[in-house]
Amino acid sequence: MVFAASFLEEDKKVTIWGIAFMLNNDIVYREVVKKFEGKKEQVVALKGVSFEIKQGELFCLLGPSGCGKTTLLRITAGLEKLTSGKILYRGKDITSIPPFRRNIGMVFQSFALYPHLSVFENVAYGLRVRKQPEEVIKRKVTAIMELVGLPDVLRRNPSPTALSGGQQQRIAIARALVYEPEILLLDEPLASLDAKLRRYMRAEIRRIQKATNITTVYVTHDQEEAMAIGDRLAIMNNGLVEQIGNSNQVYHQPTNVFVANFIGKMNFFPAELLEIQDNSYQVKLDYNQKILALNLPKEQIKTTELNKNHQIILGARPENMTIHLKDKESIFKGRVQIIQNLGKIVRYEISLLQEEKGKLIEVDTERDLPGVKEGEEVGLNFKGDKVIIFPGDITPEEGDRDGLD
Amino acid sequence: MALIEKIRNFIVEQTKKDYSIYLILLIPLIFLAIFLVWPLAISIGRAFVLKGQKLVLDNFTLANFERFFTSSMYQRSLRNSFVISFAVVFFTLLIGVPMGYFVARVEMPFKKLILVLGILPIITPAFVGAFSWVILLGRQGVLRYFINRVLSVFGLSLPPIYGLFGIIFTMSLTYLPFVFLLSYGAFRSSNPLLEESAMIMGATHNRILRTITIPLILPSLGAAAILVFIRSIGNFGIPAVLGGNQYVLPTLIHFRVHGFWDLNGASAIAIISVFIVIIALLIQKKIVSAREYETISTATSEYKLHKHPLIKTIAIIYCTLILLISLAPQITIIIMSFFEKWTGFLPTGFTLDNYKIIPQIASKTIKNSFFLAITASILTALIGTLAAYITERQRPRGGILIDFAIMTPFILPGIVVSVALLSAFSSDPINITGTFLIIIIAFIVRRTPYVFRSVVATLTQLDEALEESSTISGASWFYTFRRVTLPLILPGIISGTILTFATLLQELATTILLYSARTVTLPIQIYNTVAEGNFGIASSLSVLLMLTVFIMVYLMNLFFGDASSSSLKLG
Asked: Residues B118, B181: contact at Cβ < 8 Å?
């Protein structure tokens, strides 16, 4: 687009840039609502979702099961009809276009390879549908198999059922890409692989995606996978998008407590806002009525309603808290319950003492602390100004993260 | 402007849609409407009108049903049907469940052989079993002769097999394989970890059997019980051969139609028998549904087989004994087919004439049988597959109605289907009585559930993502069906069809009311030959029939293995 624009006269450049900017947004969701008619009640899977995905982007839809991410993907594919709202592709409304006319490639969680067709025929399927001549099919299949790193498999050309999980995965990707679709959709593509292969394949998927520069939507419930692979992520919960941003933004600048606790782990402390002055905030902790003076930069304030005597929530990542011996001055007092040495970090689970309501706090340190043992009393502090202020007084339940990773 | 735009969009949208599927949807729907729903409706209507009167509201009467209160013959038939069906369910469970347990859980030689031989009675026409028991235990039966010699020492004697006892005895042996196979499958497929964990918690063998094993296979037993019940109450051949003056509902219907051409009276009896089946179904549902469990864990391990010599000995003796008794008819028929008479200790008059005469007397009926069974099987495959695909994949509104309509014949005794078809199509404007067409239609209506179930089972196991993936890569519905769905469900279709063919070849209950001189089938001819008392020729014809069916089922198992077992349970 930049090239095209520079050949034009100066006054037309503005409009062309305008189009380029529009084209830059490949997929646009506008107020997408999806309701399923259940046997007894209506289930609202998507409650009005609006956002945009850029050309050539690897975009992750991330969220707990039942959040609507797979429904949104299937709506993008055309496999589900939406109840209301619109989907645009390059400015064109594709809401009512059936899936087989959308020119999309999709990789399913189960891979969905055809057991009755050979590997070659599996990959060639989309080309045969498009009635491509035999020599074109041969050339394209060979090329795509090379791209996914399986050029040798075609020599024996077995049934896909004879291959390993990782190879099946690559063939599923090859099959989805071979007819050069405009969008690639991946539905939990790594879920059926074992942990080690999963880490390897996610790098492979990113490599292939960048090599083809195809706009890609990637659904996963694994936050580590999403952060590792995605250019940007949309964190979904309960039929709504909670936050969109790159890995850095969603980890360090979560917009709400759900995102904060879904991407990694965060400790929450309800408090009352007493005083505001520029960047300094005076708060009173609900747990032990202690008054703290915090100096926080603007981007760490996630609420617009900053009034005196307002209820807020302080959030701190486990690595942004420190542990002290009990006689040292500290904000909280607690007892060490469990120490898990994970190699790269050491994770301490500490329960606040009875007068501080017994809440469990997680603290990560790089090395294990000498003299801190399970069952011992310790003190806790925030590390510097790495505390985030959220609105409201509801902290997510601990159970929310069960079984997510 | 906006309106024009809207209309334009609408037209564009409509032309983009894929309509080919809706046309194909109509085929099974129309067939069911004309040949199942309509005849049943007419038949129900006629049950409330006297013979020869018009089907209008003014002629409404309950007279056809009154016979159940006035005629002792009707009352006895009803009672017989009840007693026989419940007794057969009871005995098949009593004998079949231990056999299933032994073969599934005890270390035994020749397990494969036991399974194959155990299935044999299913593929033998029921009335053939009945008349071979006449040879063995009839008035001049060879076995009875022996038993009575022994019993006479004590001053006792065994009565001939005719009557209620004979019917229950033969039917139990005929339907035993259903219970045996279903309980064998259940004992094998339940998760051994559940029993092992009970054992670790200190439960004894008996306690585990009582509290874990039996409750978990109860749904399978329920399915087997209802299957046996439906078949017993609808069986025509066995009571026709062995009943003597003891009528049951199907023979009563036959008597009504054959003797008086009273379709209205027959319809009333048919309604009563269907009514009983429905009640039995509801009772079974109630008992089983409260005890149906979902499997929680997917982890399984292999069963450790019982190796105790005592248990082994008991199991081997038990299975051999049951197999010997239930295979006695087949053996008897084969021997009988080479002799003229078998009234004393040994059969007399060795001859091959029984076989040599077949081309002369049966070439037409064999041709008829094959023509009817092949035509009906192919059409059944087509309709059953389409209906299964529609209800399973397209899930249209009211799909449950198609499901219900197709499965209805499953609980309808064959003779009831015939009565319904005769009620609707035996008078102007459409009169197809005595034609091949009416038999083919009856066959299709009756067997569609088997193909339907077989294909639905294959489809539910087929990952829907396979088809979605094809759609996404740009294929139309028809292309996807042709290139992906059909090749993958073909084993299910073929095994369902072969089984349909094999069972249609031996069908008697449906054809007994529908055949004419032109359309006699092989089972009808065997039935009539038995009635004439010509056991030699009846035997050679039966051997021919059994052999054909056996070869078909054997080949199917050879080529399709597991795929056929699911439909076999239904067949």
From this structure: yes
Among chain A residues, CA nearest to B473: A126
Find chain A residues with C-beta within 8 A of B17's C-beta: 98
Give the type of residue at B6. K
- Pick A265-394's CATH classification: 3.40.50.300, 2.60.120.10, 2.40.50.140, 3.40.190.10: 2.40.50.140
Which residues of A fall within a CB distance of 8 Å from B20?
none
CB pair distance less than 8 Å for A126 and B474: yes
Nearest by CB to residue A110, choosing from B16, B463, B475, is B463
* Contact partners, residue B485, CB within 8 Å, separation at least 6: B389, B393, B462, B466, B467
Please give the model's pTM, rounded to 2 decimal places: 0.78
Report whether pLDDT(A399) > 90: no
Strands A104-107 and A183-187: parallel
Using DSSP, state whether B58 is helix, strand or coil.
helix
The residues, ordered by sequence, that sit 6+ positions from B530 with a Cβ below 8 Å of its Cβ are: B127, B131, B134, B241, B538
Portion 36-95 of A in contact with B at CB < 8 A: 77-79
B 469-508: CB under 8 A from A: 469-476, 479, 483-484, 487-488
Q: What is the dihedral of CA B465, B470, B471, B473, to 10 degrees?
A: 120
Strands B339-341 and A360-365 turn out to be unpaired
Nearest to A218 by CA among A69, A33, A34, A29: A69
What pLDDT sits at residue B316? 92
Are the folds of B27-65+352-463+493-571 and B81-337 the same? Answer: yes
Cβ-based contacts of A108 with chain B (< 8 Å): 465, 468-469
CB contact under 8 Å between B474 and A100, yes or no, is: yes
Closest residue on chain B to A179 (Cα): B473
pLDDT of B210 reads 82
Question: Which pLDDT belongs to residue B248?
Answer: 93
B51 to chain A, minimum CA–CA distance in Å? 46
Percent of chain B with pLDDT over 70: 92
- Can you name the CATH fold of A2-103+182-257? Rossmann fold (3.40.50)
Helices (H), A213-263: 223-229, 247-252, 257-262
> Could you give the strand order of the β-sheet that contains A291-295, starting from the edge strand earlier in sequence?
A291-295, A280-285, A267-277, A311-316, A388-391
Domain ranges, ordered by start, for chain A: 2-103+182-257, 265-394
Question: Are the beta carbons of A280 and A291 closer than 8 angstroms?
Answer: no
The pLDDT of residue A101 is: 86
Q: Is the pLDDT of residue B497 over 90?
A: no
What is the distance between the alpha carbons of residues B38 and B506, in angstroms, rounded to a whole number? 27
Residue in chain B lying closest to A122 (CA): B470
Q: Is B17 on the interface with A (CB under 8 A)?
A: yes
CB pairs under 8 A between A and B: 68
Residue A396 has pLDDT above 70, yes or no: no
The domain defined by B27-65+352-463+493-571 folds into MetI-like fold (1.10.3720)
- In this predicted structure, the answer to whether residue A13 has a pLDDT above a threshold of 60 is no
Q: What pLDDT does residue B529 have? A: 92
Q: CA B211, B212, B218, B221 torsion: positive or negative?
A: negative
Q: What is the pLDDT of residue A404?
A: 36
Judge whether residue B2 has pLDDT over 50: yes
The residue among B397, B412, B488 whose CA lies nearest residue B446 is B412
For chain B, domain boundaries? 27-65+352-463+493-571, 81-337
**8 Å CB contact of B471 and A105:** no
CATH number assigned to the domain covering B81-337: 1.10.3720.10
Cα–Cα distances in Å, from A162 out to B15, B190, B486, B517?
42, 29, 22, 57
How far does A28 lie from chain B, in Å, by closest CA?
19
Q: Please report which residue ranges of B412-485 form alpha helices under DSSP H.
A: 414-425, 436-461, 464-472, 477-480
